[in-house]
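An example makes the point: we print one protein in full, the chain in one-letter code, the fold tokenised, without further comment:
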Amino acid sequence: MPIILPPGQGLRLPPSLPHAQLLQSLSRRAGNTFPQASNVWLPVRKSEIVNKRTGEHKRLEVFRVYQPELKYLNQLEELWNKAWRTGIDESNPCAPLMKEALLVGPDQIKSMHDNSWSNILMAAVDGKIVAAIWGNQLNLDNDEDALRSIRSYDLTTENKTFGNNRSTGNSRLCVSVVNNPDFNGFTTVREGISVGQFLVLSSLIEVVCNPYQTDVYAFSRPSSLSRFVEIIRGLERQYGVKIRYDHNSRRWISNDGKPVSFEKDGVKAGDKVYALSDINEVRIMPADEGYILMPEGLKLFMDEKGVYVVEGGNKDYIAEIKPYIENTNFDQMAKFHGGRGGELAFILPQSRVNPKNKEIGDLIALNYNIVFHFPIGVIIKKNNLLRGILRHFSPQQREVVRTMLKDLRAARRQIDDELRQQKIHDAFNSKRLFGDAFSFEKMWPLLKYVEFNR
């Protein structure tokens, strides 16, 4: 049985302490010597969830899990693969590549256990794990090149970033969110969001409370892109309606200048609505030389701007990626991240390919990774956390935030005075905690947010 420490009782260490200190404290409480303590579950949040179709209610509990036992890791492996396998079409020629890119095995789970187990949040219903989210702490220092250097973290299961045990990183990289498909129809009663989004929100709250972390980055796949390209090209072939994004008006328009919107079941161009189920003339198929638009037989190309074909020696962009993500409300993963405050950071073409074939790999996403950035101020504002977050803070953190809310100038003076006294200028000292609450590095984005949103 796991050691469950109730909120307000037992061990309540701030997340700033290194993992070794945490285990040492747990070991002492258990009368053991370091590092014997294991399988500790710290409650994070809980919620009532309901299936709106059936009316069934469940109680969902979210835990931060430290060094879970093997049986729970096996549950995680089973959960991960069950969640991702639903998106793999066995009849698709890319299925073997998709399995290699999306599924995990015992080696990856062991690596996670050895290195980054303290970053896992697990959601349980009746003691059974039904969802999980985990990420790695990194020191990126707002360096985009550093983030781009790990662009292929999920290229294959061998390269997934489970190997990280940093305790004071200023950024969190979300590795994955997995949800048991049996709970896809459930939403939280209070917020009305899915189980997966509730876990994302729980993770974001942890970032806000963390003494060091100021940013979250989430790698994602544009999970509706392949179908979007088929729809756009199909509209042109079947109905003569050519749709492009107009950068001047910042909207999608048809070839006759009419505004275009993408609805749940169809595309509306002017007064005409085209049902998505009727747009089936174009299909994207994988081949040794890349992806081919059928029945035209044209090769698809992907760059940072978007997906295009070459006709008459010229590039013809079918779908530009940035406006597709930001201005269509069509992509499922974009809606998933954007709903919690994610902002498109940059686009990585050809980053989901198979090592044996640099042209094909992830048919659904057409080999793209897209990176969402969640700055701490956006996290707080988008999720309305400014007041509610206080109950998640430690007493020292609450005092610091109350001071900022009450007298921002006094808070600035206090920080400046300590900066002068401590001579905190270099990167190492910027990790020191201000008032046992937040690092000096984190105080500035917090102050900036409070200043503009009081």
